[in-house]
Amino acid sequence: MGTTISPPQTLVILLLLLLLSEPYFQINGHDFEIEEATIEDVQRAFCDNKLTSRELVDYYLDRIESLNPVLRSVIEINPDAVAEAERADSERRAADNVSRSSLHGIPVLLKDSIATKDKLNTTAGSYALLGASVPRDAGVVERLRNAGAVILGKASMSEWYHFRSPGIPNGWCARSGQGLNPYVKSGDPCGSSSGSAISVAANMAMVSIGTETDGSLICPGDHNSVVALKPTVGLTSRAGVIPLSPRQDTVGPICRTVSEAAHVLDTIVGYDPRDSAATMAAAKYIPSGGYAQFLNKNGLEGKRLGVVRNPFFTVSSRTPVFEAHLRTLREKGATILDNLEIGNIDTVLNPVLCGEAMVLMAEFKVSLNEYLKELITSPVRSLSDVIIFNQNNPVLEKLTEYDQETFIAAEKTDGLGEYEKAILEKLENICLNGFEKLMKEHELDAIVTPGSRACPVFAIGGYPAITVPAGYENDGMPFGICFGGLKGSEPKLIEISYAFEKATKIRRPPSLGGS
User: Fold this and answer.
1) Of 221, 281, 354, 482, which sits 20 to 30 A from 455 (CA to CA)?
2) Alpha helix (H) ranges present in 95-158?
3) Would residue 276 show up in a list of annotated catalytic residues for this protein?
4) What is the mean pLDDT of residues 307-321?
5) How far is C-alpha 53 from the chain's CA centre?
């Protein structure tokens, strides 16, 4: 199995953080600025023989060894990562003029719910699945391997997607402990793809793959000053990913720039026969020529953006920054329609009132049981087994502090009956008469909101969204700006967010000395 990363018992490690501030990495006599390097930068360095994939992987493994004992954002490193990097280097040397994927030789960190058929575990952060054997790579992992990417390891996550109990803090899981925000140690890293976001923000990985059911990509992206892209449900395969809701689950990239997110998206989208219904329905949205073609610095020209302030906007220290960003969007050619309202928004934002919570519990039990039964070997084969495991291992699973009340409630459900189906119909009508009506009536290309509070709007309808770094509070805590659109609007969202990113250049790496 993979090498498990354990928290240290000494503060000496904090001194090592200062050693990692040097941005240049000496390679073959050349200075290459690797810390915030993009995929494009690295591929150019590969071509110019200034960098090898092996050297890149070694750099990130050193970063993980030094930083992870404090940040706790990586659960395991792949013991075969170096071998995979050396294979990529050999392929490049053997045929220099061959056109390769932009991810060839690039190390990628995966959320711990995304299955890999190798020496790594896939546990959703829980000891209950430690040692389980998956039948095959997840669909997105298969695509990454085919592209020549290097699987660097597994990122920590809010255990079981923060679904075991509402009492579990964001970024916490039994196997790695509490993940920390790299900008402000006391700041919320958000979840559940917390480890993926922390690791990329702290330059412990170049790119990562996370998942979202409701906020689990956008929120950690927002809180950790990175770009997170939530694709239209079905655009990326969920096969081999520990499920929560087949109706809402989606797999997407977390990166430091919009361009990297577009390149990763190009690699992982597409039809998968093991997730056939969803990926077939979404395949029509994939543009000919891919997503990187929409990295247009003039992408805001002619766009119609709707600003939804209520209830996402509150007067705070962020207010002048957000208003300045709206001016930038206008200056770059966008038409801003301000103070728009989404119908039934109060209902949408209340998971109990709209019924989302009840349906998610029923979907989780059914889909998790199906996933667990397909494992080759596993300590648990059902949600009921997981609950019993947790009860029998209170020290391992920290049940003296955190219980599993949501799991117990989910176990009492009995699939999608008439009651649940009525809720699903209600949710569909809420989407049609709320978000979709707003978008169509005003002919919007996207809506714009500060922060990540709009995530439920995109979640219940399976809509795409992207968050881009937008600023920092007085204490250094990051915040983002979120653009969301109708299904299949990823090309527009990439154009809008890339142009915004290029115009503002907000993101800065963490000092790793936050409070």
Assistant:
1) 281
2) 139-146
3) no
4) 89
5) 23
Q: State how far the Cα of 119 lies from the Cα of 78, in Å rounded to an integer.
A: 7
pLDDT tens string 325-349: 999 999 999 999 999 999 999 999 9
CB within 8 Å of 441: residues ≥ 6 apart: none
Residue 92 sits at φ, ψ, to 5 deg, of -70, -40
Is a pLDDT exceeding 60 seen at residue 189?
yes
Take residue 486 and report the two structure tokens written for it: 């109708």
How confident is the model at residue 16, as a pLDDT? 36
Q: Kindly report the length of the chain.
A: 515
SS3 state of residue 379: coil
Q: Which one of 53, 102, 111, 332 is the catalytic residue?
A: 111
CA distance 122 to 312: 35
Q: Which of 158, 165, 216, 245 is catalytic?
A: 216
pLDDT tens-digit profile of 465-492? 999 999 999 999 999 999 999 999 999 9
Q: Catalytic: 440?
A: no
The residue assigned the tokens 């499920």 is 243
Chain mean pLDDT for the chain: 93
Active-site residue, 165 included: no
Q: What separation, in Å, do the N-terminal and C-terminal C-alpha atoms of the chain show?
A: 35
Q: Considering only CA atoms, which of 462, 454, 453 is closest in space to residue 431?
A: 462
- SS3 category, 354: helix
Q: Give the chain's domains with CATH numbers.
A: 52-504 (3.90.1300.10)
DSSP one-letter string for 248-293: T-EEEEEESSHHHHHHHHHHHBS--GGGHHHHHHHGGGSPTT-SGG
Catalytic member of 192, 452, 489, 497: 192
Q: List, for residues 75-113, the tens digit of each pLDDT value.
A: 999 999 999 999 999 999 998 778 899 999 999 999 999
- Flag whether pLDDT at 220 surpasses 60: yes
**Which three-class secondary structure state does DSSP give residue 470?**
strand
Secondary structure of 163-191 in the HEC alphabet?
CCCCCCCCCEECCCEECCCCCCCCCCCCC
Q: Residue 510: pLDDT above 60?
A: yes
